[in-house]
Structures are given as structure tokens and as C-alpha cells.
Amino acid sequence: MDAIAAQLLRDQFLLTALELHTELLESGRELPRLRDFFSNPGNFERQSGTPPAGGALGCRSGAAGGGGGGLPGSVLPWSHRRNRAGSISTLDSLDFARYSDDGNRETDERVAENEVPLQERKNYKSSPEIQEPIRPLEKRALNFLVNEFLLKNSYKLTSITFSDENHDQDFELWDDVGLNIPKPPDLLQLYRDFGNHHVTARDVVDASVGVEDDELEADTPILGTVPVFETTPQSIEQCLIVQKLEDQISVLNSEKWSLMEQIQRLESEIDLLKNENFAVSTVYGVAPHPSLKQVPLTVSEDNGRYLDIKSSENDNKHGNIDETSLALSAEVDSRTSKDDMLNSVPSKETEKLSSCAPSSKAAVHFDKPNRKLSPAFHQALLSFCRMSADSRLGSEVSRIADSEKSVMLMLGRCLPHIVPNVLLAKREELIPLILCTACLHPEPKERDQLLHILFNLIKRPDDEQRQMILTGCVAFARHVGPTRVEAELLPQCWEQINHKYPERRLLVAESCGALAPYLPVILSMLQQMLMEDKADLVREAVIKSLGIIMGYIDDPDKYQQGFELLLSALGDPSERVVSATHQVFLPAYAAWTTELGNLQFHLIPTLLNKIEKLLREGEHGLDEHKLHMYLSALQSLIPSLFALVLQNAPFTSKAKLQGEVPQIEVTRFPRPVSPLQDVAIIIGSREQLAVLLQLYDHQLEHEGTTGWETLLWVVNQLLPQLIEIVGKINVASTACVHEFSRFFWRLCRTFGKIFTNTKVKPQFQEILRLSEENIDSTAGNGVLTKATVPIYATGVLTCYIQEEDRKLLVGFLEDVMTMLSLSHAPLDSLKASFVELGANPAYHELLLTVLWYGVVHTSALVRCTAARMFELLVKGVHETLVAQRVVPALITLSSDPEISVRIATIPAFGTIMETVTQRELLERVKMQLASFLEDPQYQDQHSLHTEIIKTFGRVGPNAEPRFRDEFVIPHLHKLALVNNQQSVDSKRLDIATHLFESYSALSCCFISEDLMVNHFLPGLKCLRTDMEHLSPEHEVILSSMIKECEQKVENKTVQEPQGSMSIAASLVSEDTKTKFLNKMGQLTTSGAMLANVFQRKK
């Protein structure tokens, strides 16, 4: 293993060496070479491509070579030179037998200390092999073997890092090495086979082992006087002589220590046999007075930490039966005196006990009663004490730990047997015990098992249990440090990410966030869970943990990966995950982006570009979900953007908390969706924000924005691009208009009133150009028909609600209504504005004011537009306003000199009949509609009749039943009769088509037998007469409808009507129903009206 470490250091694979050092450290097998290399800052101060200078050492008796810049070895301090140990360049030159991988670190160090003489430790040896550069093919071959060894021995993290450092080599294919030979045996086989070859013995002891000079002088007084020779041409012969002698010494030392290890092993086996066969060892002390004979209990060695209280069957063979019997009797009778017992020995002394030396612990003595019973009698008497030491539990019970290490070892053995027998509901009580043992246990495998138990402690941990486990994990991390957390806790998380229970995966996701302050960035695990986990709760926890990690990440190379994760999170199908993204992940990522300087130059521009691309590609169908995703992300970035503007303002250096701090208005900022989007928290404190806001307003009002780069970017780049995007939106898309309106509203409210009035409104006004000379009688002002109008009205002009702001909004809407009407342009932008504003009752009075302006306007075109706008407003306005403001305005317009204005009021009257419940109001509307139908002056008004029929079909199914039965259906019958007499086929077909749609919608309503016989059926028959000549497809459907209605009437006498059962839904014949539906699907009439057949019921 040391040879591999030397190879890695020599080839400058420092990250791989560091991973190897970490894994060996955690497994208790630390290599001195790696320890000293990574503890010496000098090894990292030079960044050349050559191996460390310590790797090219001169003659052992000479200086420490190139590492000291030419200084002789006697000048360099030992602590400096030992961190620059040499390395071996080929496998053939390694003395593998000297480096054991058995985990016994203390023995390895002890060998090295005694094997290297004093002068050797002060002067490095140099061998010709070190100076030879490694060939490229040799390097690739050794890399392959090293990687193979790491994988086979579970050093996976080291292997991954090693592969990354050798990205130009494929470690899965030996042929990639480039040697035209079969793959050699692995490193283990090479090591085992090394003894079969004759190799000149060379001292390759790790010179980086640090020892005290006085210890070495005491151990090797003769060799300590070896002289120091300079590495000059004159001293080459002396160097060779010294080299030869040292090689001989090295061989002898190796033999000596090999024999000593064998002796120690045999002595350990002897002690083990003694511990198994003897319960009472030799008495170390004799009582000072004959009457006070004291017998100690055996101090047996179980890792040097246990007091053995077991009795042995062979005590009589060693003459200790009396003492043992009396001691045990004293224990059973509870007559042990505290003053006569020494509980334990000091831990420091205990740790010095070697496995082959007799125990130095203080013996525990008990008074020996003055009795003369025979040993056989004692043995027989004690046989009645029922004690069991044969089982696992009996063995544990019979031993009492007397030190911290012993307790940890005992807990490590016992906890795996205790946990399965504890009730699931109470297992969290074991968490402190498991964690404490996992922290302090010396064995890596036992620690791994305990942490595995922790993560699998509860089958499906609930919120409280998960919180308890997370608290324990954090405590563990604080105690053991990042290296052990990464090596011990992370593997447990990886094991659980695909667990079948979501609670366990939830625990993993939450653990990553909780451990973020104590771990390197672990985005890969969370990225996998975000992409693959199907549980919304788990992905939500993943997002929150990602947000926490964003607060600790400091590697700029991870920025793009974080951005991709952000887009994935924003596009998640779960609303919970998206909400967590806006609350935690996005603000945390924005904070990091701000630090990197990417907020204005990458994150926001990238999102804007994605929106523009969507609009370009969505000419035939915009992906509104993606638009919402990107725009909501931009909206969540507004607080971070404003904080950036404040923190980089010219006045920031003047912002001092002195004297009385001004108060921030409660409504100054929009309510944040989470604390992380609170500008005060982003800045640092509410007091600091208050001072900055005061300076911000003063700067904008009096000093301008010169030199204020961050704000100029918002004004000159962000706002123009946003306004351009707004102009490309389909104004008919209510969702898009609403999204952009909310975005501009938040932007303006966050940046303040002065900014809105001086920077935002002028840019919109420049685009819109509301003036009489811009009116085009053919096409109108093009921008007024776009979404710019509703977004400016509802997103910018509604930010502040003072009187002057409201007047500005009213004036803008009046101007738009006038210009669109006079230019005969589409009214979609005005309608979108009314729909968006009408959703808020606070603007109803304002909108009615705008419409009244249209009612009294001198132009009939404007009055007609106002009449049509009332239809949109009626649905959301309170009935009191309808009665006081809407109906009077509509009645005024219904008597307008222009017939087009009167016709334009019909849809609004119909909507009132559909939504209002006041009887008096309904009667007024009914009278007005009746005047349209019965007044002779309207008898030949084809467009008026068409509008009334369309309105009846739209509102009839949802209107008050009495109005429908007494007014709508009878008048439809009359219109059908009149249409039979129409001589112009085009008008007759137009009326008949609208009648068909109205009758189709009304067929879903309950119709009484009298109404059916007197009006509904006769009306359908009149309509069929028209369709026979004009549209045979409609005639077939009408015949089916008439037949079913007649059957329904016939069945009335046998079966009572069932509530509001629709005629279409109660067809007797399935064949007829199928035919009816198929025919309707073939028609080219309005799909919206045909849909009413199945949707509107009363």
C-alpha cells in the first residue's frame, strides 16, 4: 500500500492520493507517507509538473537533494525533510514484504522507527531508480493495476478520483494501455510472488516517520554515530561503503523484527488461552497482616479493557479454588465493600499495556473469610449459583467495561441485537445511543453497521422521527468532521435513494440539506432523486435541500449544473415542487448567482431569451405552461435584482445606521412568497434597508442614475426587452396577459413609485403614442391592438391607487376605447383590460366611469363600443351597481338614434337576465327586449333578430326558468314562424342556423308538457320546414329531435317527469341517439353553441 502511495505522489496524482489517505485514515490504517505529505503546506506551494523535490534524493549520507534548493541534509530540519520522502519508480524495486496492509499501524511505525538508524533519519538515501523517469507505457500499465486494486478492495471514491485524473485512459480495457502483452497479474499476486525472485536488499523504509531523537539514540546508540558525507565526487566511494553496510543492517533489522512479531503473536495466543481457561490469575499482592488475606479477581485482557468475573472449571488445577470461591461468594452475598475495591486503572496506563505483558491494572480485593471448607465443597456449593457464560449474552454480561473504548466496543456488539427487539414506535429512543457509539467506536466496519442501523431504524419514519434522525446526523457530522461524514454517512444515503418506501427516500433528501454545512457539494445524489423519484413529497424535499446547498456552494463550475436543476424544478408537474422551488431553491440560487455576478448577465437574460424563443415558436400554439414557468421565475428574481441595485448604488457607502432609522411603509413591497424573497432579509436587516431606500429615492429624484450601472441595465436593457416581448403576446390569451400584468405590477411596486413614474411609464407611453393624429381609419394604431395595452393598464397603472393614479388609468382607457372605435380596430386589447381589471371589485366604479364616458360620447362608434363592453362588466359587478349604473346606461343606449348602438346593447341585456336575480331588474330588462321584438320599427331588422336569437341561445339554459318559459321559448317560436315567410334565402338560412343552435342549447333544459306542445315542438317544425329547402343535414337532425320530443310527450301520461331530466339525455332509442350525435358532429355550425347541448343544464 505504501508503494502505491509513493507511486501516486511521484506521478502527481494528488487528488487520488488524498482520497486514498482519507479512506485509509477512516479504516484505521493511516500511512505515514501520506499523512506527512498532506500535513506539510510546503508540498503545495509549488505548482510545477515535476514530482516533489523530495522524490529525487541524493545519497543517504548526503543532503536531502533537490528539495531544499541545494542545501545539505544537515542544514534542513528533520521535520522539513521527512515530508519529502522519496518514492519508487518500478514494481521490481519495491520491497513489498516491509509494508503490511493488515491495519496494524502501530507495529508498522514501530518497525520503521527502529529499522532506520539515527543518521539515516537525518539524511535521505538516494537510489538510481528514483532518478529514472517512468516511461509512458509503464505509467499506463501501473495506472491500470492500481485502479484495479482500488476497485477490488472497495476504495471506490479513490478509484473514481484516480480515473478523473487519468481521463485519457480507459481503465476497463487492458488493451487501451498499448502494450502488446497479456494483462499481468494484479498487484496482490505480484506482491505474493515477489519473494520467489532474488532482489538486492535495499532499505526502502518510509523515511517520513517522525520520531524523537532521544528515543532513537537510546534504541540505536552505535548507529547514531554514523558520519554525514557530502554528495561530492570525492565521497562516492565512501557512499558505496555506507550503502552496503546499511543494506546489511536493514536485512538484519528485518529478520529481528520478523522474529519479534512472531514472539508477540505467540505470546498473545498464550494470553488468550489463559483468559479462556483461568478465571483467577496469580495474586499480585499479599495482605500486610495475616488475618486480612485478600484475593483479587482476575484482570483478563479483552482489548485491555475488561474485568472478568467468570469462574473457571479448572481453578482447582492451579490451587486458587479458595480464593475464587470466596470472591464469588462475597459478590453473591453483596458483601463487597467499596473501600476494598479498585474500580479501574487509569486509561493512560491501560493504553500502554502490550498484548504480551502481564496486566498492570490494580487488582480488586475481597476479604477472605476465616473458614476451613474443602475446595471440593466450595466448588459443589457454588454450582448452585445459576450463571451462564456460554451464550453471547452471557459472555457480554460476565464482562464489565472499565473504559470508554471498552464501552464503545460492547455497545457496538450489543446494539445490533437490541434494535430488532424494540417496539417500532419507541425506536427513536435508541438514536442517541446509536449515534454516540457510531461516533466513538474505533472499528470502521462497526461504525458502518451502526449507521446502517440508524437509517433503517424505523420502517417508515414520520416527520417527527425523521427530524430526530436528522438532528442526530447533524450532531454526528459536527463531532466527526467532513472526512468521516463523507466516508460514512453519504454511503448510507446512497443506499436509500431507491428505497421502496417514500419516507425513507424523504429521509435521504432531507439529510442532504441538513448535512450541507458539513459536506462537500453533493448535487449528483439530489439530481438523481429529482429526475427519477415519483413521489411529490420526496422531490419537494430534494428541492429544499438543493436550496440549502446553494447557500454553501462555492465552486463556480457548478453554476451551470445548478441552472439545469433549476429549470428541471420549475418544470416539475407537481405544484408542491414548483412552490418549493420559488420559496427556497430559486432565491438561494439567485443569491449565489449575484455573488458570481451572473444575475444580470446570465440568469435573467437567459430566461428572457427562452421566453422570446417560446413566442417565436408558438405562432400557431403557444406553450402557456412553459411561459408561466419562465415568467414566474423572473418574477421571483425581482427582489434579488432590486437588492443588487441597492447594494451597488453610488450611495451604498453612505448608508450608515445613525440616529433614528426611518420606517418602511407596510405596503412598500409586495408580500413575499417566502422569507428568502424578502428584500430586507436579502440586504441583511430592515433598518439597513430603510436607510438604503431613503437614499435610493433621493438619488432617483434629485441626482439621477449616472454611473449607476446596475440600475442603468434595468432601464436600458431589461425594460425595453420586456416591452418588446409584451408586444408579441397574443392578446386573446387571458393567462399570458394576467402573468405579465402581475410581473410588471411586482416590478414597479418593488422598484418604487419614483422609478415607475420616471423610468417605466415613459417607455410604455413612447410605444403607445396616444394622440388623435395617430388614428388610422383603416388599421388603427397597431400597438393598441396588442397585449401592451392591457399589461400597461393592469400591470403598471394600477401599482398605486392614489387619486392622480386613478385619473391616469381612466384617461388611458378612455383614450384607447376612443381610438380603437374611431379606427374600426379590433377591441380585443380593450376587452382584455376590462376582464383583468374587472376581476378586482376595487376597479368596478372606475370601469363604469370609463363606460359612461363612452355612453355620452358624440361618436356612435364609441357608444357602440361602450355598449359591448357592458357585457363583459356585468358578470362581476354587484347587483346594486348593475341596477344603479349599468341598466340606466344600457336603457339610454337602447334608445340611441343609431340602430347599431341599440343592437349592441342586446348581449348586455341578455347577460343581465343570466346573472341577476332581482325581480324588478329582470322585468325592466324583459320589457326592453320585448320592445325590440314587438316594436314594428324593428320588424325588418335582420341583424337585430340575429343578435336576439344568438343571445337567447347563450343565456337561455342558465336564465331564470320563468323567463325562459314565458319569454325565450315563445319568442323563438314566433321568430321561426316569421322566418318561414322570409323571401331572401341567405337571410332565411342565417336566421334558421342561429335558431337551430338556440333550440339545440334549450333542448338540454326541462320543458313542461304544455310548453313542449304549444311552442317548442311547433317551433322545431317551423325550423324543419326551412331546413328542408336550405340544409338537408340539419333537417335530419331536426326530424330526430321532433320524433324524440313527441315520444317524450306520449310517455308523460305513463311516467311522471323526473326533475330536470334533459330531452337529449332521455332518448329512448340508442340508435337514434347515435345518429343524432353523428349528424351534429358533421355540421359546420358554431362549435361553442353545439357544445351547449351537452354542457348547460338547468
From TrEMBL:
One GO cellular component term: trans-Golgi network
Transmembrane segments: none
Keyword annotations of the record: Coiled coil, Endosome, Golgi apparatus, Lipid transport, Repeat, Transport
Primary gene name: RELCH
Biased composition (Basic and acidic residues): 332-341
SMART domains: LisH
Repeat as UniProt keyword: yes
Record's subcellular location: Golgi apparatus, trans-Golgi network; Recycling endosome
Coiled coil location: 242-276
BP term (GO), one: intracellular cholesterol transport
UniProt source species: Cyanistes caeruleus (Eurasian blue tit)
Lineage: Eukaryota, Metazoa, Chordata, Craniata, Vertebrata
HEAT repeats: 886-924
Protein name in the entry: LisH domain and HEAT repeat-containing protein KIAA1468
Region (Disordered) location: 42-61, 330-353
Recorded superkingdom: Eukaryota
